[in-house]
Amino acid sequence: MKKRVTRIFSMSLIFILLLSVFAGCASKSEGSPDGVPSQAEVEEGTEPDAGDNSSEDGRTYKIGVVAGESSSPWYIRSAEGAETFMKERGIEVFQKAPTSVDAAEQVQVVEDVIAQGIDALCIIPIAPEALEPVLQKARENGIIVIAHEGSTLENIDYDVEAFTPEGYGAFMMDLLAEQMNQEGKYVCMVSFLTTSSHNEWIDAAIAHQKEAYPDMELVEEERVESQDSQEGAYERAKELLKKYPDLKGILGSSSFDAPGSAKAIEELGLVGQVFTTGTSTTSSAQKYMESGVMKNFTLWDPADSVYAMCDLAVKILEGEEIKSGVDLGIEGYNEMTMDETGKILMGSGWVCVTKDTMADYDF
Questions:
Q1: Closest Cα to residue 277, out of 348, 212, 164, 355?
Q2: CA-to-CA distance for 55 and 317, rounded, in angstroms?
Q3: What is the helix (H) or strand (E) element at residue 349, kind and residue range?
Q4: What is the count of structural domains for the chain?
Q5: Do 255 and 146 fall into the same domain?
């Protein structure tokens, strides 16, 4: 009998000791200072110090940004806008892009992003018409779709632009006309004839030239494609300069057009005789700005554009009314103007970059 009592007492003591061990482990896991996650945190897939990716009222959102091409300095910069928005606002944002300037590949990237369970899609299109079916699919799945440089797209909620096409196109033409002394023949470049925003700027630039600079003459070819490539712009510029020996100006809309043209101008010994300007970036144009082949270029900050797109997406998700005057939370986009279609919002975000100001736009 005594042995039996002793055995029972020993087993009870062991059981109590085991319970205390398990309890100690549990208390260490729950909010432990050494960072070991609790069971609840493991099940939820979170960590104790992770951000909650929520809006101000606690609702969580996920925003996917699809850019034009992954290695382009322009789109590397745009990804910084997504990262800044995520850090400042605590809402999950990520950017994906095709590895080449290929419309079909961009469509596949959009498909992949949609599959990640996003609440909003921000798209910078390569070829707008190629994207319509996949953007329609996104909207049918309840995804908010915001575009930038995609004003002709139908299957979007809104398009966000840094400026009006008329204002920006006229601004670019003024810069070229000044260098050409407001006279002589010129030609225009676009990344692709299907890129709506680039062609809208060039349309506006040509219209402004005809009104303001009657002694300038657009050559018969009017505009050519650079394939959104600096090498492509260089090759096309060489062809144009040989085809039109009296050509005096090349106006570019893609960030590679003016630098590529500058390379051809320099190589053919035409510096000071032929001039080029237009949209570009410091990373692409710096060499030719420092050598004096290019006098200036224009741009807007793509990081700011992505930030504004994300802000607009969240406003829609939160049920806010979108109208003229809406503030998208970043300079140049503080008081947006809505166009007559009710879908295009335009700001005032362009700048002229010179050799002296390049360091301010180091991308």
A1: 355
A2: 10
A3: none
A4: 2
A5: no
In 78-129, where do the E strands start and end?
Answer: 92-96, 120-123
4 within some domain: no
Identify the pLDDT of residue 55: 53
The rounded average pLDDT for each run of 10 residues, N- to C-terminus, in the chain (363 residues) is 39 38 35 32 30 58 97 94 97 98 97 98 96 98 97 97 94 98 98 93 98 98 95 98 98 97 98 98 96 97 97 98 97 95 95 94 90
**pLDDT number for residue 21:** 35
Question: Of 230, 296, 295, 290, nearest to 263 (Cα)?
Answer: 230
Task: Please report the pLDDT score of residue 56 as a whole number.
Answer: 54
Range of the domain at 138: 62-162+302-347
CATH of the domain at 224: 3.40.50.2300
Three-class DSSP category at 352: strand
Residues 196 and 247 in one domain: yes
Residue 263 and residue 190 share a domain: yes
Q: Is residue 17 included in any domain, yes or no?
A: no
What pLDDT score was predicted for residue 352? 96
Say whether both 294 and 174 belong to one domain: yes
For residues 264 and 230, membership in a common domain is answered with yes
Amino acid at 280: S
**Is the domain of 169 the same as that of 147?**
no
Helix (H) or strand (E) holding 283: helix 282-291
Residue that is written with structure tokens 């605590």 in the block: 90
How far apart (Å, rounded) are the C-alpha atoms in residues 84 and 86? Answer: 5
For residues 171 and 245, membership in a common domain is answered with yes
In the chain, the amino acid numbered 203 is D
* pLDDT at 110 (0 to 100): 98
Q: What is the pLDDT of residue 11?
A: 41
Are 135 and 186 part of one and the same domain? no
Is the alpha carbon torsion for 208, 210, 215, 216 positive or negative?
A: positive
Got the DSSP string for 206-259?
HHHHHHH-TTEEEEEEEEEE-TT-HHHHHHHHHHHHHH-TTEEEEEE-STTHHH
User: b or e along 186-222 (b: 16 or more beta carbons within 10 Å of the residue's beta carbon)?
Assistant: bbbbbbbebbbbbbbbbebbbebbeeebeebbbbeee
The answer to whether residue 353 is domain-embedded is no
